[in-house]
Design goal:
The chain is of the alpha+beta class and 169 residues long. Helices cover 36% and strands 38% of the residues. The radius of gyration is 24 Å and the shape is globular.
Length: 169
């Protein structure tokens, strides 16, 4: 009887100490799981480069991160690349300087493409600080960028426009 109890304890210990890899692999196909989240990738680097170009006022570098037919949804006002890049001239003409505090930037990759063929989206959270003379305004921007073939192809921006409006007067 002692041998039987010892064998049972040994088997239980071995079972308890083995890795549960099969269960982890099976969970990836579970209902509701259809992609992965990544905090560092070529796509997150692309968004960080776009943010750096925006901050430095380098419209050529900024433009190079986007596809030629990109669609911007700037607080739900839609425009193309030329309309969006025109902000560089407006900011320069008003003498407004920008600094950006970059918060979290992460990528979601999905298994199934959208109707537009997108599988990768990068989300970013920034605090933009605008300075004109002795006046300063801040706004927090949340952006979602769809990425395809190494370019930003569609962008949704959400921020409070009223925070910066005073500097444009």
């Amino acid at each position: 009887m002692k041998k039987f109890i010892l064998l049972f304890a040994l088997a239980g210990s071995i079972f308890a100490c083995t890795k549960k890899e099969d269960g982890a692999a099976a969970s990836t196909g579970a209902k509701g799981q259809n992609g992965i989240t990544i905090d560092s990738s070529a796509n997150t680097d692309l968004v960080r480069n776009m943010i750096a170009a925006y901050e430095s006022g380098d419209s050529a570098a900024y433009r190079s991160t986007y596809s030629t037919d990109v669609i911007f949804h700037d607080n739900l006002d839609s425009m193309g690349i030329d309309g969006n890049v025109s902000m560089f001239k407006v900011l320069a003409d008003k003498g407004i300087k920008i600094s950006v505090v970059v918060g979290p930037v992460w990528e979601n990759q999905f298994d199934k493409p959208t109707s537009k063929g997108y599988t990768s989206y990068v989300m970013s959270h920034t605090t933009n600080i605008y300075t004109r003379g002795d006046k300063t305004a801040k706004n927090v921007t949340f952006a979602v960028d769809a990425i395809k073939d190494g370019k930003l192809v569609e962008e949704w921006l959400f921020y409070d426009k009223t925070a910066v409006a005073e500097l444009f007067k």
